[in-house]
Write a structure and sequence with these properties.
The chain is built from 6 helices and 7 strands, in the order E-E-E-H-H-E-H-E-H-E-E-H-H. The protein is an alpha+beta fold. Strands 1-2-3 form a 3-stranded antiparallel sheet. Strand 4, helix 3 and strand 5 form a beta-alpha-beta unit. Helix 5 crosses helix 6.
């Protein structure tokens, strides 16, 4: 990752400053640096944001970090690694995470479900804190989809149990 600052000609100076900034990244070993917005996938951008927030959180102590789908575009072991990093951050500060990943959700200390629905012709969102059994069912649903099976429940138990080890 590299931050590049290019000085602007004085005629180009304005409210946004006297320099142009570019964020460059190489997403593969040996690859050339390129503009983040041009070469990084959605998942790579999410992980880059996670890495930046982790690094900056230690420089300036912030009490709360918010991550909205930082695990987008990843699954399996990578999602578990993202969840583990978030759990480490959660030991020293409040971390709020919006996720669709059961691997990440299983590592949470508290689990809330946000449900969007229509009421009286208007969209509204409800937030429910999930107790232990409801949390298990939600993680099983995240794994299985609309039909929750015994296998999905067993997998949810394994994820939650593994998170506590």
């Amino acid at each position: 990752f590299e931050t590049r600052l290019d000085a602007l000609a004085e005629a180009e100076w304005g409210a946004e400053g006297a320099e142009r900034i570019a964020f460059l990244v190489a997403t593969l070993p040996g690859a050339l640096l390129g503009a983040v917005q041009k070469i990084a996938s959605g998942g790579e951008r999410a992980r880059l944001l996670l890495a930046l927030k982790v690094a900056l959180a230690d420089v300036r102590r912030v009490p709360t970090l918010v991550f909205d789908e930082v695990d987008r575009g990843v699954g399996g072991a990578t999602a578990a690694a993202v969840g583990a990093r978030l759990a480490v951050l959660g030991r020293t500060r409040q971390v709020l995470v919006v996720t669709h990943s059961p691997q990440v959700a299983a590592l949470a200390d508290h689990h809330y479900r946000v449900v969007k629905r229509e009421r009286k012709g208007r969209a509204e969102a409800a937030v429910d804190r999930l107790a232990e059994m409801a949390r298990r069912e939600e993680i099983a649903r995240m794994l299985a989809g609309s039909t929750v099976t015994a296998a999905a429940r067993a997998a949810a138990d394994a994820l939650i149990g593994g998170a506590r080890s």
